[in-house]
Amino acid sequence: MADPRRILILLAHPVLERSRVNRRLADAVKDLPGVTVHDLYEAYPSMNIDVKREQALLLEHDVVVLQHPFYWYSAPAIIKEWLDLVLEHGWAYGQHGKALAGKLALNVISTGGPDFAYRPDGFNRFTMRQLLAPFDQTFHLCQMKYLAPFVVHAAMRVETDEDIKPHVRAYAALLASLRDGTLDLNQAMAAQRLNDGAFTPQPAGNA
Amino acid sequence: MSDSILFQALIYLAAAVLCVPVAKRLGLGSVLGYLLAGVIIGPDVLGLVGNAGHVMHFAEFGVVMMLFLVGLELKPSTVWQLRRPIFGLGGMQVAGTAALVTGAGLALGFSWQVALAVGMVLAMSSTAIVLQSLGEKGLLKTEGGQASFSVLLFQDLSVIPILAVFPLLAAGAAVVGAPAQGARPGWLQGLLILGAVGLIVVAGRTVVRPLFRFLAGTRLREVFTAFALFLVVSIAWLMQQVGLSPALGTFLAGVVLAESEYRHELESDIEPFKGLLLGLFFISVGAEIDFHLIAEAPLRIAGLLVGVIALKAVSMLGFSRIFKLDRPARWLVSVGLSQVGEFAFVLISFGQASAVFGDEVAKPLVAVVALSMLVTPALFVLLERVILPRVTAGAAKREHDAVAHDDAQVVVAGFGRVGQVVARMLRMSGFGVTVLDLDPEMVDLLRRLGQKVYYGDASRLDLLVSAGCEKAKLFVLCIDEPDKSMEVAELVRRHFPKLPILARARNRQHYIRLWTLGIRDIIRETMGSSLELSEHALRNLGVRAHTAHRIANRWRAHDEKALLDMMKFVGGPDRNAFFAEARKAMENFEKTMREELQGTTGQPDKGWDNESLRNEANARFAAVQAQAAKASESSTTTSTT
C-alpha cells in the first residue's frame, strides 16, 4: 500500500471528564499524523447526529475505530444511534451500498473485567470476540474488514498515567502500523485481540 | 298598523326566533325553520304579513351576500381545480335537465317556447338552501359537497345567458332586446360588462387592500363593518347597472379578496347580515306559497312536485355517474340539488314580464318551486339518515380524508416571534394552520414575506368561529400581552370547551392565571432560552457539551416539578399557604439540584462510571491475586520439596 491509511477514531464516552482510560488513550493519539479523533458526545450533546457530515468523514478515512467503554457488553448509546443512522441502506450496505467497501474497522475498548473473565469458563462466559459479534457482522455487511479489538482490561484499576502507559504505547503503535500498512490484515482479522503488538491467538476448543 | 315597518320587523323576527331553534332541535335544519315560519305568518295561515313579494325582493340581497361569502371561501386556485365539475357536470346538469323538462312540456302540449323556458327555470337549484344545509351538516368539503357547489356555481353563471334568451322566446317578439339592458347596443353592453368585471378584479387587488389596512389601523370595528357592507352593496349596484347578476359580481369580488389577509375579518362582518337576510328570504318564500291554488288542485300540484323532484334527482344520478363521482357523492348531489331554487323566482317573474308565459303557467310554477324548497330539508334528513349511511359504508374513509385536507387543524393566535416559529413548524409538518394577529403592519409585512396570516382580533368570538375553532384540533395561544392572552383564553374556553389550548406564559403570574382557567399545557416563554443560555455558558466554561446538556435537562425537570408542586396550592382558600408552599418548593428545588450536581447524594449518572462497582472489582481482584500468590507459593514449596 503506497499511501498511508487515514484513521478516524469515533470516541464515545458520555462522561469523558470522569474517564480514566479512554480520555488518556484519545489524548495520546489525537496528534498522530493521519489520525482524526471525533468526540461524538461533544459533537452531538443531544444525540442529533448529522448523518451527511458523518458519512463525509467516513469517506475521507480508510480505517474506522470505535473507541468506547464496554457498557453492558456493548457500546454507549450514541454509538448505536450512530450505527443506526449513518450506515444507511443503499449507501453502506445493500445492493447499491458500497461506499465503505474495503475499509477497515475495529473496536477499541476499555472494560472492567480482567482478560480471564472473558473466557468460556470465566464469569462473563464469552470471549471478547464473541461478545463483539454484532459489530463484526455490521461491518462485514458493509463489506469492510473487521479486525480484532484492542482491549484495555481491568480498566477499573487504572488510576494514574503510569498505570495506562503500556496501553497508550501499544495503542499508538497499533494505529501507526495500521496507518503505514505494516500490520498483517489476515492475522489481525483472525486474532483474539490486537494488544501488545503481538496477536493473541484464538483459544483452541472454546466450546 | 300592520303595515308599519316596526310591526313587520317584529313579526318576521318573532317568527324566526320561535321557529328556527325548534326546527334545529328537531334536526330539520334552519332553512326548514325559516320556511315554516314564513308559512305560519303568511296570508293563508295567520295572515300577519301582507305582500311578502317586496320583502323577498329585498331579502334576495341575502343571496348576494351569501355568494360573496362563498367567493371568499374560494381561492382562484380552487375554482381552477373545480373547472371540470363546474363546466362539465354543471353544464350537463343545466342543459340535460332543461332538455328533459322541455320534452315533458312538449308531451303535455305546451308550445316549444314555453316548454323550453320552463325547462330552464326548473334546471335551477337553490344555492341558498343547499349551501346552508351542507355547511350546517359539514358536508361542504366532501366530494359530493364540492360537486354540488360546482353545479350550483354553473347554474348561477347560466342565469345571465338565460335572461338574455328569454325575450327571444316571447311569443311573436322576434327582435326584442332584453329590457334590463335598456337600449344599449350589444358591443357597448359587452364592453361595459368586461369593464365592470375588470374593475372588480383590479380594484380588489390594488385599492381595496390598502383601504382595509388603513381602516384596520383605526381599530374602529363599525367602520370596518360599514366598509365591508359598502363593498358588497356597491358591487351589486355596479353589476345591476351593466346588466349582470349582482350575485355573480359579488361572488367574483369574494374570489378576488379570498387571498387577502382580511378574509376572516370580512367573513365575520358580513356573516350576520347574510344570515338575517337569507332567513328573511326563506321566510318570504314560505309566505309566498299560494295555498288556495294548491287547495284547488292538490293532486295536480303534488304530481308536478314529485315529478320535478324525481326527474331532477334521477337525471343527476345519471350525470354524476358519467363524471365518475363515488356513490355517496352521487346521492348527495342528486338528492341535494333536486329542488328548484331562488333564481327560478327571478326567472319566472322575468318570463312573465317578457310575455314568454302567462299567469296560468307562472302561478303553479311558483307553487311547485316554493314547495320543492319546502321539502328539501326533509329530503336532506332522508339523505343523511337513510341514504348516506347505506351507500357510504365502503367509501367512508375517503370522504374523511377530503375533509381533513382543507380544514384548519390548528389555530394560532398571535404571530409575533413565538407564534411565527410555531405556525411555520406546524405548517411544514403538514398541518393546516390559521394564524390571527392584530397588528396590521405586522400582518402586512409577513404577508409580503409569503406567510399566511389574517388580520383580526382573536378576542372576537365571530372571528374565532370563522378561523375554524369549531373544528380545530388545537388552539395555540402565542399572544405576548398577558391581559389580552387571558381574554382570548377565557373566550376559547367558554365557547369551545373541547378545543385543547396550548398557551405561552409571559411570566409566573400569567402562568398561574392560565392554570386557574384550567389550562394545563403551558409553556413559559423564557424557560427554553434561559436553559439554552445556561447550557452554552457551561460549555464556554469547559464543561463537556453532553454534560452541560444533561444538567440543563435535569434543571428543567426539577423546575417543572417544583412549579407543579406549587400549583397544587393555587386557588386554595389560604393565600399564605400558597406562598409558604412556593418558598418551600423553591428551596427544595435548589437543594436537590445542588446535591445532584455536586454529587453529595451520590454520583449523577452512576451507570456510566460506577464507583461502587470499581471498589468491588478492585477488592475481588486483590482477593484473586492473593489467592494466586498463595497457590504459587505452595506450588513452589511443593516443587522444591
- Count the helices of chain A. How many? 8
The helix fraction of chain B, in percent, is over 70%
Name the CATH class of the largest domain in chain B: Mainly Alpha
The CATH topology of chain A is: Rossmann fold
Taken in chain order, the helices and strands of chain A follow as EHEHHEHEHHEEHH
Question: What CATH architecture of chain A do you see?
Answer: 3-Layer(aba) Sandwich
Which stretches of chain B are low in confidence, meaning pLDDT under 50 for 5 or more residues running? 173-181, 394-406
Distance from first to last alpha carbon of chain B: 142 Å
CA(first)-CA(last) distance of chain A: 38 Å
In total, how many domains does the architecture of chain B comprise?
3
Q: Radius of gyration of chain B, Cα only, in angstroms?
A: 35 Å
The secondary structure category of chain A is alpha/beta
Question: What is the CATH architecture annotation of the largest domain in chain B?
Answer: Up-down Bundle
Mean pLDDT of chain B: 80
Q: What can you see in these coordinates?
A:
The complex is a heterodimer of chains A (207) and B (641). By secondary structure, chain A is α/β, with parallel strands linked by helices. In chain A, 34% of the residues lie in helices and 14% in strands. Chain A has 8 helices and 6 strands; from the N terminus they run βαβααβαβααββαα. In chain A, strands 1, 2, 3, 4, 5 and 6 form a 6-stranded parallel β-sheet that branches. Chain B has 641 residues and is mainly α. In chain B, 73% of the residues lie in helices and 4% in strands. In chain B, α2 packs antiparallel against α18, α3 runs parallel beside α12 and α5 packs across α8 (143-169). Chain B starts with a helix and ends with a helix. Classes of the chains: A alpha/beta (207), B mainly alpha (641).
